[in-house]
Design a protein that fits this description.
single chain; alpha+beta; globular
Length: 241
């Protein structure tokens, strides 16, 4: 995959905020996910080891059957400290390195982090999506920005996540009676499409299967895998929210 090089990564906090604010205008909230999407990816980064090296992983799966078709990893020292709201400057360089190695271009990617549900409306899912020109969805386990109302206990229940009068995502129950995920637009996707794909890519866990397996791959529990063919007629069976 071709990754755009729009800015340096080793920057100050003030420079990072300015880059986020500037690139936020590139985010598209219109879905570009194909009607018959075939491949969905999950992305995650491991904590740095004793030498400060982290591993980023991308797991590509076929849909709707959710079989692994390719796994790629990349290693590097994160160039930015952990600061809430600036996760993309810490994790994106290594994640993009893994994404760049793929031979299969996924139709969309799920990223363990925020999209629009971010102070400058430019979380890591937006950042990766804009630089890779790829439809992306943020799937976070906690709230960075916004509040939501109550939602039912059953899988598929949801409530809008709002910040300063703007809908920035949803709290989405992905498993009965388990804490919701916080789903938001990354790039080239709308919120309804994001919710449907998150639900459709679950296998009984809180996290969608692509990001759950990407977490394992980043931890070294799933080896890298060269691309294998997926069924030619595979198509997404969207789950109504």
């Amino acid at each position: 995959m071709n990754i755009l090089q729009l800015h340096p990564w080793d920057v100050s906090l003030q420079e990072a905020a300015a880059i986020q604010s500037d690139l936020a205008s590139r985010v598209s909230r219109v879905s570009a996910v194909p009607e018959r999407a075939r491949f969905i990816a999950g992305m995650d980064l491991s904590p740095p080891d004793s030498d400060g090296v982290a591993r980023g992983a991308v797991v590509v799966m076929s849909i709707p059957d959710l079989e692994i078709v390719e796994v790629k990893c990349s290693e590097g020292v994160p160039p930015f400290p952990y600061v809430p709201g600036y996760l993309s400057f810490r994790e994106s360089p290594v994640l993009l390195g893994a994404l760049e190695k793929l031979t299969i271009t996924p139709d969309l990617a799920l990223i363990d982090g925020q999209g629009l549900a971010h102070p400058r409306r430019f979380g890591i899912a937006c950042h990766v999506g804009a630089l890779a020109d790829l439809p992306t969805i943020g799937c976070a386990k906690s709230i960075l920005r916004g509040k939501h109302g109550p939602l039912g206990d059953e899988r598929g229940s949801w409530s809008y996540l709002e910040d300063k009068g703007e809908v920035v995502g949803v709290a989405l129950r992905t498993r009965d009676r388990v804490s919701p995920l916080y789903v938001s637009i990354g790039h080239k996707v709308d919120l309804d499409t994001a919710m449907r794909y998150v639900l459709a890519s679950g296998k009984g866990y809180r996290m969608p299967e692509p990001t759950r397996l990407a977490h394992q791959a980043a931890a070294g529990r799933i080896p890298q895998r060269e691309a294998v063919a997926a069924p030619a007629q595979s198509r997404m069976e969207l789950i109504e929210s």
